[in-house]
Amino acid sequence: MRVLLPAVVLFALLLFVGTVLKGGRLYCEEPAIDLHLPSEDAISKDQPARSWKDDDQIWRFRYAPTGTEGRAGIPYWIFRVMPRIFADKLGGRGYAWFGFHDDDQSYYTHRAGDSADGKSFKMPRGTVLVDTDFEVPLFHFKLVLKRVALNCSACHRGEVMVGSKRVLVDGMPNGVADLQGFKRFFQRQIEDDAFNAPRVLQEIDAVLAEEGKPALTARDRDAYQAIVWIMKKLSSDNAGKWMDARPENGPGRIDPFNAVKFEVLKVPDDGTAATLDFPSLWNQRKEIRQWHHYDGNTEDSSARNYGSVVGVGGMSVTIHKQSVDQVGNWIDGLEPPDWPFGAQRGDVAKGQAIFDKMCFGCHGRYDPKTRTVVKSDGYQEPHPNVGTDPERYKAFPAQAAALLNDFGERRQLWPAGAFRGAQDGYISGPLDGLWARAPYLHNGSVPTLDDLLRPPSERPKRFCRGSNEYDPVKVGFVSKLDGCARPMMVYDTALKGNSNAGHAFVPASASDRENLIAYLRSL
User: Fold this and answer.
1) What is the 3-state secondary structure of 345-403?
2) What percentage of the chain exceeds 70 in pLDDT?
């Protein structure tokens, strides 16, 4: 989805030389490349459900752009018509095929892009509509062409059914969204012969007619012919082809560091399959989490925040630093979600005693009342003997860390040495909000806590993931294979990077397991 990048950068540089530098003077006003396309005016506006301010950090987390549009933004009208052109590839369900569900109405009665009657189209949760801002030292310019991009909430605003109600939870992994499938759809279909300028123009005009809006003008048609040509040209660089040689990520998972290695740093393919579950984003402050990411590769918040944006399409000149910083500060203090399913079986006090004997040495003990952690000597230290799948830490050796450090330092994103190579294991951090972090282990290979606390040989070898239906007894999402269809997928633990082995810490009896689960639910 590297859309419009080289052409836009070239155009912007020409604008800088020809317009901003006049008579040797640097003009202070923000220059803009405005294509003056009437079709931009046909894009519906957000309909607020309540007022908000720029310092509203919840709004910023859910709806503000982060800069992923730099390499991964899709022009709005292209985004609108792709499901029409390739309806057969999406089962006729549009972007819901990838688990891109509707937003709630806490901030907007309609999301940007809705038609006047609110029935024709809705922007999926986790997507934003944004003009592209480029920032370089002493200079800032904007490309005025609406593009659709992902923001923080695409990965980190989860959903769960509580009774008959769908509840969205900030900071919870979005276990229903298949970001890899979404990305590969655009990469593959842009190369398809059916994606051509005449067909694109025809479908845009059809959408505009259905919504009672004027047809494309000559200027629009010329611009979109060029846009289609540029998109096809950029798709030929095969930047995402490395994914074809690896198992499918599926919903709720991503391989961000290999994406950075192969697509940004241009490291030769090392064959690793480092797919991870989306992590939770609460209690990120240093007092609770000194090291970030599953393998503890950084303790620097700028590396954590900006590196995440780069991993899903951001560029150093497009990252919205102020907004990303504000969201980063907010997640440092965000509280984990409370258990929403009422009383369950088990004795919490007995479970805590079992936890102290069996789990405290690695994880410490999180206190949900004080939001503090009692740490043990082993807390937040790598554990190479746990026996979980090694692909993630194999994928980020010291050499990769050095390249990423150089990349960020040169672009003033993070300081020298911000990243360290993986330490031959994974961080055993606190277990706050554990119920909302299912499936379990770093790669999401175990569907429920009940499964995790059994011998690895008894854990499901194949299960369905991507459901929002929750099992409050086993503590995890329902994973039965019957009816496992898109956007869900069958997870196969025999595939590379998908192992559910290791972490073989098993309570002595069924009652001990029940009590330990009761305690873990309460965190």
Assistant:
1) CCCHHHHHHHHHHHCHHHHCEEECCCCEEECCCCCCCCCCCCCCCCHHHHCCCHHHHHH
2) 90
What six digits make up the tokens of 73?
């933004």
SS3 277: strand
Place of tokens 């969205």: 168
Cα–Cα distance measured from residue 252 to residue 174, given in angstroms and rounded to the nearest whole number: 6
Q: How far apart are CA 122 and CA 15, in angstroms?
A: 35
Q: Indicate the residue type of 131.
A: D
Q: 130 to each of 37, 44, 69, 70, 285, how far by Cα in Å?
A: 15, 13, 8, 11, 29
Comparing CA positions, the residue from 161, 429, 186, 459 lying closest to residue 289 is 429
CB neighbourhood size of 308 (10 A): 22
Backbone angles phi, psi at 45, to 5 degrees: -95, 160
Token pair 């907004």: residue: 323
Residue type at position 84? R
What are the domain boundaries of the chain? Answer: 5-150+179-245, 346-386+427-521
Mean pLDDT of 162-188: 96
Task: Give pTM, 2 decimals.
Answer: 0.91
Phi/psi zone of residue 294: left (φ > 0), alpha (ψ -120 to 50 degrees), beta? alpha
What angle, rounded to 10 degrees, do the helices at 398-410 and 301-311 form? 90
Q: d(Cα 337, Cα 335) in Å, to the nearest integer?
A: 6
Tell me: the pLDDT tens digits for 442-479? Answer: 999 999 999 999 999 999 999 999 999 999 999 999 99
How many degrees, rounded to 5, is the angle at CA 25 between CA 24 and CA 28?
A: 155
Q: Which residues are within 8 A (CB) of 170 and not within 5 positions of it... i.e. 6 or more apart?
A: 58, 61, 62, 153, 156, 157, 281, 334
Can you say how many angstroms the Cα of residue 368 is from the centroid of all Cα atoms in its chain?
26
- What's the fold here for domain 346-386+427-521? Cytochrome Bc1 Complex; Chain D, domain 2 (1.10.760)
| CA atoms of 378 and 380, how far apart (whole Å) | 6
Q: What would the pLDDT profile of 80-98 be if each residue is shown by its tens digit?
A: 999 999 999 999 999 999 9
Beta-bridge partners for 170? 157
Count CB neighbours of 329 within 10 A: 15
